[in-house]
Amino acid sequence: MEGNNISVVIVGAGLAGLTSAILLAKQGYTVSVIEKNKFPFHRVCGEYVSNEVLPFLTSIGINIRHLNPSAISRLTVSSVSGKTIELPLQMGGFGISRYVLDQYIYQVALSSGVKFYFDKATNVVFNDEQFSVELASGDLLTSALVIGAYGKRSNLDQKLKRDFFYRRSPYIGIKYHIKTDLPADLIRLDNFQGGYCGTCKIEEDLYNLCYLSETKNLKAHGSIPEMERQLLFKNPHLNRIFGNSDFLFKQPEVINEISFIRKDLVKDHIIYCGDAAGMITPLCGNGMAMAIHSGKILAESIIKIGRAVSPEKRLLMEKDYERNWNRQFAFRLRAGRYIQSIFLDHQLSNIAVRAFQKSAFLTSMLVKSTHGKPF
Ligand SMILES: Cc1cc2nc3c(=O)[nH]c(=O)nc-3n(C[C@H](O)[C@H](O)[C@H](O)COP(=O)(O)OP(=O)(O)OC[C@H]3O[C@@H](n4cnc5c(N)ncnc54)[C@H](O)[C@@H]3O)c2cc1C
To answer: Which ligand 1 atom is the nearest neighbour of the CA of 279?
Structure first.
């Protein structure tokens, strides 16, 4: 591929950053990715991926079948007290651990010519049409463009004074890999007071069990095992899953300060994608697809710049990306927040499950409003 004069630094090698990196490198950009963790590694995630990503991943040489994922076509939702509905997932999805998936996409990025720095970015400065990215090791990278693909919350958000960083983030996420006896084609979503838990099969004979809980639940019960006993086990389905499964991690993977509030897409000319641009509630099972899709539309806006960046072209690119991002994701994020608020409430979750039991139309609207079309 013929090169061009544009260098891009991407902070964060999650699905959003890796997607942009691969697309830009394939177009001849000089792409450097900074990632603070070494592959492979575990992340807190439900590890269910909507099939909407498959055409795009195949088009860039990522063949998910090689990873032997599970194929998921049914969703069962239970209310806090255990009432259930089952619904078919029209588009369906697959289950694959982030440990395996991210490592595979990282390899594709390497073979596309992306350069990786396993280091922590500590500051980004834009001056005289050029970025300087400072790393914890003391190294400094310079580039014409910087993409912030560093996930839901990072040291950089504080350093760069992003508004959302100073607002409350009242959720924690907890993940296990387990061996259990659930059907391989089913994803379960079991609600408990102030949270919900997803379970689905991933590769080999493994299952993912991952839940989101209000942080106050943990504060009230003092420890994760006690919170699980006092809240999750009240849902009879979760009680059965926890009782009948082998838990494979010594300690669960845990993240806190999860926030779903609106974020800026561009600040000081840093362009954000994936969770760094806005996070959909995990209930929708669609964050990974959105991370990949936003990485794609960002790379497409950048590619429209042509062979060199000017202040005018930079502004046009930023506007183009914001317009496309809002068209694709703004409604979905709002719908996800609204639906989550219903399911986090004991009474409302029972009412919602009863309403969905009665109306196939309502259930299919629920799934459609939080998912995109294949891209
Ligand atoms: C509890 C829970 C369950 C979920 N379940 C699902 C699900 O089942 N299906 C689904 O589709 N989505 C799910 N999601 C959402 C999904 O995990 C995210 O939307 C997706 O991973 C976002 O990808 P990303 O590339 O934006 O960010 P990430 O995957 O978070 O990647 C960001 C990267 O940036 C790196 N980084 C951060 N700061 C720095 C720095 N300063 N310097 C260098 N590197 C840095 C991090 O190490 C990380 O590797 C879930 C989320 C949660 C919280």
So the answer is: 19
Q: What is the largest CA-CA distance in the chain?
A: 61
Residue 129 in tokens: 């049409």
pLDDT digits (tens, 9 = 90+) for 33-90: 999 999 999 999 999 999 999 999 999 999 999 999 999 999 999 988 999 988 889 8
- The residue to mutate among 45, 89, 224, having the most atoms of ligand 1 within 8 angstroms of its beta carbon, is 45
pTM of the full structure: 0.96
The closest-lying atom of ligand 1 relative to the alpha carbon of residue 295 is 25
b/e per residue 238-253 (b: at least 16 CB within 10 A): bbbbbeebeeeeeebb
152 CA: nearest ligand 1 atom: 30
Bridge partners of 93, per DSSP, are 50, 72
Q: Which CATH class is domain 7-168+258-370?
A: alpha beta
Contact residues of ligand 1, CB 6 A cut-off: 11-17, 34-37, 43-49, 120-121, 149-151, 154-156, 173, 198, 210, 212, 258, 274-276, 279, 282, 285-289, 291
Ligand 1 center to residue 110 CA distance, Å? 20
- H or E segment at 213? strand 207-214
Q: What is the pLDDT of residues 307-353, one digit of tens each?
A: 889 999 999 999 999 999 999 999 989 888 888 888 777 777 778 77
Domain boundaries, the chain: 7-168+258-370
- The CA-CA-CA angle for residues 372, 177, 173, to 5°, reads 60
Q: Identify the DSSP state of 328.
A: I
As a whole number of angstroms, the distance between CA 296 and CA 289 comes to 11
Ligand 1 pocket mutation pick from 288, 297, 367 by most atoms within 8 angstroms of CB: 288
Q: Any bridge partners for residue 10, and if so which?
A: 33, 147
